[in-house]
Write a structure and sequence with these properties.
alpha/beta; Rossmann fold; 2 domains; four-stranded antiparallel beta sheet; binds adenosine-5'-diphosphate
């Protein structure tokens, strides 16, 4: 369960202050699939960084599964990210000195999982994202789309309960994008994980069970789609 209460994040830029987030309150239940949309600069990335515990708000409260991120120690935040979080950002942060398999195994290695087990799980994920043949390659030998799929495999390898992805299908052709979207949904379903995707893609937004639209640091629309006997209905929150 994610709970945000009156969250603000201001940046000081010379004389003026930029209100990247301006009073966001939100509750996201386990196993929701949320698409976050809105024009560039409306605060989507700022919100994702705060939920991921990578940044701290100017004011307000955030808690994830009972951990108050606003008051948690750096060690608790690191522990939270290592165990519970899968992150796919636009710059994939893959390590150039490691091959694809090693990059994907890293979150497990950091948890102290034995090497053979890490390798086996990494191979499983590489199979799911269609990169088995690339396991021994280095990052610079991969296309942009392959790097993105590697980053997605790495985000999923430790079975996170919260997956946050910023434009996860942005660099992919339609077939790969469909496959990755289906994979994210399948994994979220199987692991009862919460999935939060920032996207400009209408297809991705349409696949979500909840649509949050932002503008100027605020939430301007929050719609839950529910399946009923007559198909998809929308209810506003
Ligand atoms: P989005 O992800 O929707 O494009 P961002 O969260 O990246 O939006 O940015 C929201 C606003 O905050 C923008 O006006 C942006 O310029 C500003 N901003 C983001 N990061 C910083 C920063 N480190 N310093 C100053 N301003 C920032």
């Amino acid at each position: 369960m994610i709970s945000l209460l009156n969250l603000t994040r201001y940046y000081e830029a010379g004389e003026r202050s930029v209100h990247a987030l301006d009073g966001v309150s939100l509750a996201i239940a386990p196993n929701e699939f949320v698409a976050v949309v809105g024009p560039s600069g409306c605060g989507k990335s700022t919100l994702m960084h705060l939920i991921a515990g990578l940044d701290r708000p100017t004011s307000g409260e955030i808690s994830v599964d009972g951990l108050r991120l606003t008051t948690a120690s750096d060690a608790d935040l690191t522990n939270f990210r290592r165990r519970q979080l899968g992150l796919v950002f636009q710059f994939f942060n893959l390590l150039p000195t490691m091959n694809v398999r090693e990059n994907v195994s890293l979150p497990l290695l950091l948890q102290g999982v034995p090497l053979a087990e890490c390798d086996a799980r990494a191979e499983e994920l590489l199979g799911l994202v269609g990169l088995t043949e690339r396991a021994g390659h280095f990052v610079h030998q991969l296309s942009g789309g392959e790097q993105q799929r590697t980053a997605i495999a790495r985000a999923l390898v430790h079975k996170p309960s919260l997956l946050i992805a910023d434009e996860p299908t942005g660099n992919l052709d339609t077939a790969s994008a469909d496959r990755i979207l289906e994979l994210l949904r399948q994994i979220a379903r199987e692991q009862l994980a919460t999935l939060i995707l920032v996207t400009h893609s209408p297809e991705v937004a349409a696949a979500a069970s909840r649509l949050i639209e932002m503008r100027d640091g605020k939430i301007v629309r929050d719609q839950v789609r529910r399946k009923d006997g007559r198909g998809i209905a929308e209810e506003s929150r």
